[in-house]
Amino acid sequence: MCLAVPGKILETKEENGSRLGRVQFGGITRLVQLDFVPEAGVGDYVIVHVGFALSKVNAEEAQRTYEMLEEMGMLEQDSEVRIQDSGPPSSDSPES
Amino acid sequence: MKYLDEYRDARLARALLADLAKRVTRPWVLMEICGGQTHTLMRYGIDELVPSQIELVHGPGCPVCVTALETIDKAIHIASLADVTLVSYGDMLRVPGSHSDLFRVKAAGGDVRIAYSPMEALKVARANPGRRVVFLGIGFETTAPPNAMAVWQAAREGLGNFSMLASHFLVPPAIRLLLESPTNRVQGFIAPGHVCTVMGYRQYDELCREYHVPIVVGGFEPVDLLEAISMLVAQLEEGRAEAENQYVRSVGYEGNRPAQELMERVFEVSDRKWRGIGVIPRSGLRLREEFAAYDAEKVFGVEDTTADEPAECLSAQVLQGLMKPVDCPAFAVRCTPETPLGAPMVSAEGACAAYYQYRRSA
């Protein structure tokens, strides 16, 4: 229910007094309400839930987290622990 | 996909697990609130990969699971009326009511439709002026602003044939209830990342101070959850109890102000009954009096419906982290996703469904 996925805004338009965006999620695109993210524009990534963008992805923070994790990953390459996807794909698509 | 694949990187997950193993010296019980996070933990086997001192118990953050039986019965009653089209998120259709479910209403000829967004229900209402269109608007803080927008937009257009059967839940009062219970075992919480995307985490700051319990806002991918677990364990081992944010790419301290403002304009805080748990004071949202014309409870006069919970479903204990789904005598025997006794076996976020789907046994 609270599932939300990141997608990239390709273009924006006005309809019924709302700002909408055509947003790309992997291979598919969908029209998304942008009412709650006035700061987001074309090229930005937004987190989308039930057809509404709820946040603009903070690219700098994402990058910082990723670099920190990457650094740890480089230090721990010999670890024995394994992680694997053990089941069918969960509902990652915005359809769920 | 960007901002998704890198948080499923097995190498990063291994590094976080190794780090966690070095950090932990004592047993700790942690709870993830959100059912979406429960599913990630089960799907990737994270509950079995973390050091054995760490026990993960699952929280009440599955809106389909906690929606009161009365709400389902009201929806079934309304959907059975000849001039009504009921529009719902898909998960709600199989949830058992007292005597039936929405799927059976649909099979018997009722006009029940599944939508991905509340705005689709508005489209149905505009296209069918001769029918009364009701949206079953359930969810936590994440879903409240989109549902509020549907009501706001209907009012703006004067769409007289649209109404919402609203049943919204708030997370912080549920955490408070768990912490006040004499049976509570939870020592640290992973707060739900998308609820906090809307609300921020100021309220969690208050809970940390009041109950001296650490809370970390977490994302939904395996690397997110491992990092959140690691942050919680670090706090517990050091004796700290702070609200921290792992899901920084989406969550800020104050949350999404435009979403909160619309939510506050359309809804007001109210007491709310949680399925299996009972009434929690000021733990829900209802439509403000100003929007009474769009409130399906009032439009259809179903405000006083009551229902008794079936005794065989032990979901109340599962939803409060007091019991694992596999410890329920009905699990995978009399209760399966095909013939569910309760909502946690139905919902894509239900803990029972997660254990069933990913084949966890006792």
How would you describe what is shown here?
The complex is a heterodimer of chains A (96) and B (362). Chain A has 96 residues and is an alpha+beta fold. Chain A has a single domain, classed as SH3 type barrels, CATH 2.30.30. Chain A has one helix at 59-75; strands at residues 5-15, 18-25, 28-33, 45-49, 52-56. Chain A has a five-stranded antiparallel β-sheet with strand order 3-2-1-4-5, with no helix packed on it. Chain A is elongated, with a radius of gyration of 17 Å. Residues 77-83 and 88-96 of chain A have low confidence and may be disordered. With 362 residues, chain B is an alpha/beta fold. Chain B folds into two domains: 1-311, 3-Layer(aba) Sandwich (Rossmann fold); 315-357, no CATH class. Chain B is 39% helix and 19% strand. Chain B has helices at 10-23, 35-43, 46-49, 63-66, 69-79, 102-107, 118-127, 144-157, 171-180, 193-199, 202-211, 222-238, 257-266, 296-299, 315-319, 351-357, and strands at 28-34, 54-61, 84-88, 111-114, 132-139, 162-169, 188-192, 215-218, 243-245, 267-274, 278-287. In chain B, helix 2 runs parallel beside helix 16 and helix 9 (171-180) packs parallel to helix 11. The longest helix of chain B has 17 residues, at 222-238. Chain B starts with 9 loop residues before the first helix and ends in a 5-residue tail after the last helix. The relative contact order of chain B is 0.17. The model of chain B has no long low-confidence stretch (mean pLDDT 94). Classes of the chains: A alpha+beta (96), B alpha/beta (362). At the A-B interface, strand 1, strand 4, strand 5 and helix 1 of A face helix 1, helix 2, helix 7, helix 8 and helix 10 of B.
